[in-house]
Amino acid sequence: MKNALLTLLVLALILSPFTAKMGLAKELTADEIIAQVDLTMGSDSKIMTQEMTLVSASGARRTREIRLQNRRTEDQDFMLVRFLAPTDVRGTGLLMTNDDTWLYLPALGRSRRIAGHAKKGDFMGSDLSFDDMEQLGMTGFGSKFAPTLLRSEVLQGTDTYVLELAPLDSESDYSKLVMWVDQARFLPRTIEYVDTNGKLLKVLHNDGIQEVDGRWVASVMEMENVQQGTKTILKVSDVEFDVDISDLSFTVRSLERGL
């Protein structure tokens, strides 16, 4: 028995350098995980069409169609959101860059800059704030939050990393985010948004995971405001990656041209 244990110990010592070289023994850090999440969710350019359904606390539903365009350069991130339908919001647009956010309302015929504090408010009556839209659709989370790896956990049959994200912005609406990251695809499966009083405010669920052009995409995203009892459901109807989009598309002048 002693000889068998000794043999196993010797084999473990001999093989450990090889397994380390192969990466089998390496565990990812929280920073590495969130960097991979941002890489998976981001792209140099993207055009996506989504159906946005707003569900009130009483269960009443309103549906809108939106188109998002993203472009990333070495030092800039751009996102343009256009409302395609229904007629009461058609033509409304949102332009986000590293430094500024602009909202265009056709009824006014001009755009207005969204101040920093206003970006904490809801985006066009949805359960996502302007900041949420920016993080999920453009900048990612790594530059906005300090991550901590809490544990690994099986969530609905999926192996996940559980991260706690502390906001770097002292004026954030959230005291923290808790994110369950798919270990195989590096997509967030669930994100809990905790308010500044330490109470759960919103929960994001990503479902319908599919591969498009070699990238993993959640075809259904549901943001639930648990305090108000409302929901916003986003369903992807079409998405293209690595599209040739001119930088001129992401200007206030282009925004005000409308559809």
Question: Layout of helices and strands, plus pairs?
Answer:
Layout: H1 2-21, H2 30-41, E1 45-55, E2 61-72, E3 77-85, E4 93-96, E5 101-105, E6 110-113, H3 130-139, E7 145-155, E8 158-167, E9 174-182, E10 188-195, E11 200-212, E12 215-225, E13 230-241, H4 252-257
Antiparallel strand pairs: 1-2, 1-13, 2-3, 3-4, 4-5, 5-6, 7-8, 8-9, 9-10, 10-11, 11-12, 12-13
Question: Your description of this structure?
Answer:
It contains 4 helices and 13 strands. By secondary structure, the protein is an alpha+beta fold. It has one domain: outer membrane lipoprotein receptor (LolB), chain A, CATH 2.50.20. A 13-stranded antiparallel beta sheet has the order 6-5-4-3-2-1-13-12-11-10-9-8-7. A hairpin with a 4-residue loop joins strand 12 and strand 13. The radius of gyration is 21 Å and the shape is globular. The N terminus is likely disordered.
